[in-house]
Design a protein that fits this description.
Strand content: 15-25%
CATH class of the largest domain: Alpha Beta
Shape: globular
Number of helices: 14
Bound molecules: pyridoxal-5'-phosphate
Helix content: 25-40%
Oligomer: single chain
Low-confidence stretches: none
């Protein structure tokens, strides 16, 4: 520990919540160097939807390395990239009747968001991006301007500009449809709101507290955007790649965004990779107008293509997600019924309990970790316990994780017997 505390910057965070040194991991199980075992309900913040070291992905990467496959190709053509693009078209886009072009960007989620914001501004000639309350989009200045979280914004010490902030679905409670407000603001030429280049949003707010946008609200937003000539950018960095039950989080909704940002679980193996999908007519980039050295991480292309082949050829995974989602939701409803002021939130395998107060959530996080469960909190006050197990978690691992969660809550006397 001393090596870290003496030499690594104070900025580190997760290691404070899970203060052990980790060595190995497989599926939903992680080991520390003292030989303790943990069930992982964090999944690399959503970057390990298929679990740790999925054997088929791992073997595909080992084979690629052993064959001296090109590792970094900038944006040159490579066979590994072609295989991924073709696979993505065949297994993801075509079956869903989606028509998008793919832009590979620097390898993290914020790179995808920055590129999408930039392209939306270029295409529309407008300056403002409309982002939402409790939205999270990344930590570089453009995406940070769109992020709501105060503790992250405070670190900027410069202007976070050219973003207007609108109320997300349900922000004022179930009785007020925030689309009515948004429509009023943006159609009144003297409201003081500039009509935006794009609306940038998550369909389930991962960091913001597992707030779910209803289909009706999302459809209204997309219709309204068309009316006023604005684009819709869906940030599916965390909610995508199966987390909400389908490959894209918007598949259950009756509207299609103009651009989609993907990263986190896109490579499937935990290697960094990010992509923007755009309607083909929006692809007005000049060659080299937006670049980045690490846009050609071929090991990530190899594992990403393998992930698609292993998990998205048919609807087996989707059915498993639906079954596990039901199972977890029922269990959480039962636990929540015993905790005054709490409620269950989220959808798919993106579920949690709003504990009603941050101290409760923080205490459960610590107690659960001591008992062998890695679980995170989210929400504006860190008041929501967030369950994000690998989509492929085995039945025994899931049962063990849920038991530890329930035992921790009981041990802390947060729930009525
Ligand atoms: C994690 C996340 C990002 C940022 O991704 P990084 O890889 O951390 O830059 C952007 N949007 C959403 C919704 C995220 O969850």
């Amino acid at each position: 520990m001393e090596t870290f505390t003496r030499l690594e910057s104070n900025v580190r965070l997760y290691c404070r919540k899970y203060p052990k040194v980790f060595t190995q991991a497989r599926g939903a199980t992680q080991l520390d160097e003292d030989g303790n075992s943990y069930v992982d309900f964090l999944s690399g913040a959503g970057a390990l939807n298929y679990g740790h070291n999925e054997p088929r992905m791992r073997d595909a990467m080992i084979n690629y390395l052993s064959g001296d496959g090109v590792i970094l190709s900038l944006d040159m053509h490579s066979a590994a990239k072609r295989r991924f693009i073709a696979m993505f078209e065949r297994l993801i886009l075509t079956p869903r009747k989606l028509d998008y072009k793919m832009q590979f960007v620097g390898p993290t989620g914020t790179n995808a968001v920055e590129a999408a914001m930039k392209l939306a501004r270029k295409v529309t000639g407008r300056r403002m991006i409309a982002a939402f309350t409790h939205g999270f989009h990344g930590m570089t200045l453009g995406s940070l301007a769109a992020t709501g979280r105060g503790s992250s914004r405070r670190g900027a010490y410069t202007s976070l500009s050219d973003v207007i902030r609108l109320p997300y679905d349900g922000y004022f409670g179930p009785a007020l449809n925030t689309m009515e407000l948004i429509r009023k603001y943006l159609t009144d030429p003297s409201s003081g709101f500039e009509v935006p280049a794009a609306f940038l949003l998550e369909s389930v707010q991962g960091e913001g507290g597992l707030n779910v946008a209803s289909s009706r609200w999302f459809e209204e937003l997309v219709d309204f955007a068309r009316e006023i000539g604005s684009l819709v950018i869906l940030d599916d960095v965390q909610a995508g790649c199966g987390r909400c039950g389908t490959f894209f989080s918007f598949e259950a909704m009756g509207a299609v965004p103009d651009m989609v940002c993907l990263s986190k679980s896109l490579s499937g193996s935990g290697l960094p990779m990010a992509m923007v999908l755009m309607r083909p007519d929006l692809d007005l980039w000049e060659p080299g107008e937006h670049t980045g050295t690490f846009r050609g991480n071929n090991l990530a292309f190899v594992s990403a293509a393998t992930a698609l082949e292993c998990f998205w050829k048919d609807d087996t995974l989707q059915q498993q997600i639906a079954a596990k989602s039901d199972q977890i939701r029922k269990r959480l409803e039962a636990i929540s019924a015993r905790i005054p002021g709490s409620r269950v939130k989220g959808r798919g395998l993106f579920l949690g309990i709003d504990m009603g107060r941050p101290e409760g959530a923080a205490a459960v996080l610590a107690e659960a970790f001591a008992r062998g469960l890695i679980i995170e909190v989210c929400g504006p006050h860190d008041e929501v316990l967030k369950l994000m197990p690998p989509l492929t978690i085995s039945e025994p691992e899931l049962a063990a994780g849920l038991s530890i969660l329930e035992e921790s809550i009981t041990a802390l006397e947060l729930a009525k017997p």
